[in-house]
Design a protein that fits this description.
Rossmann fold; 36% helix; 11 helices; four-stranded antiparallel beta sheet
């Protein structure tokens, strides 16, 4: 589905209402509700263990859902299989990169594009990835296990783009990266996607990095959404930062 088709459907990229979810019999998320409009960049912040990753993966049907509703680009995807949700125009860049270590860069990209090849109009192809990310082109025949952390994260982002998604969820994208890799890959690459109108949900512990990209902040504390507001107001509220982020 093209970006124009998404725009015609709805201005809302993600709508979550009353979502509770968990795993191994433990409820992690409690009655979460929020919306993301098309083109927004939103930071999902919280201490370690607050439920950020659980929320990110719950959007894709990857966590047992206790209750609630999830709508993606106008479609109620509650209870859908993960692969079907992904075809609704949303992609996950998972914590830990999520690339196949025994496959080359080219093979990883080809795997990501398997379904989208059937679409008549594709904004991202392997050729565009290599044009846009020359470092991946240089390493195209290297196994992903041999890449640096920044290169693997770049590959994970490229894989998400090859699904033709217009909404991208990034789960702890700066984890384990050097300051240089954060600046080049996360700030640089994700910042470019923001300028191109992609909808971004960035689940992150690195508040400074996330707020360079996001104009709005969601805060999770013990699986409960305790704040939803603009980035500037959040930065000015030191008491809120101390209470929920321990800063």
């Amino acid at each position: 589905m093209t970006a124009q088709a998404f725009s015609a459907q709805t201005a809302t990229a993600i709508a979550v209402s009353g979502l509770s979810a968990g795993y191994d019999g433990v409820q992690v998320l409690h009655d979460i509700s929020f919306t993301l409009q098309k083109g927004e960049a939103v930071a999902l912040l919280g201490r370690n263990g607050s439920g950020k990753s659980t929320l990110a993966t719950a959007l894709f049907g990857m966590e047992p859902q206790v209750s609630g509703q999830i709508t993606i680009h106008g479609a109620d995807v509650t209870g859908w299989a993960s692969h079907r949700i992904a075809r609704q125009g949303i992609a996950l860049v998972p914590q830990g990169r999520g690339v196949f270590p025994d496959l080359t860069v080219e093979e990883n990209l080809d795997m990501a594009a398997l379904w989208s090849r059937k679409q008549p109009c594709r904004s991202w192809t392997r050729e565009r990835v290599f044009d846009s990310f020359p470092r991946l082109a240089e390493r195209r025949r290297f196994h992903s296990a041999s890449l640096s952390g920044g290169e693997r994260q770049l590959l994970a982002i490229a894989r998400a783009l090859l699904t033709q998604a217009q909404t991208i969820v990034l789960d702890e994208p700066s984890e384990g990266l050097s300051p240089r890799a954060i600046e080049e890959v996360i700030i640089g690459t994700v910042g470019q996607l923001k300028s191109e109108g992609y909808t971004l949900l960035i689940a992150e512990q690195n508040m400074t990095m996330a707020l360079q990209l996001a104009e709005r902040v969601l805060i999770l504390d013990h699986g409960t959404l305790v704040h939803d507001g603009g980035s500037a107001a959040f930065l000015a509220d030191e008491a809120l930062q101390r209470e929920h982020l321990g800063l």
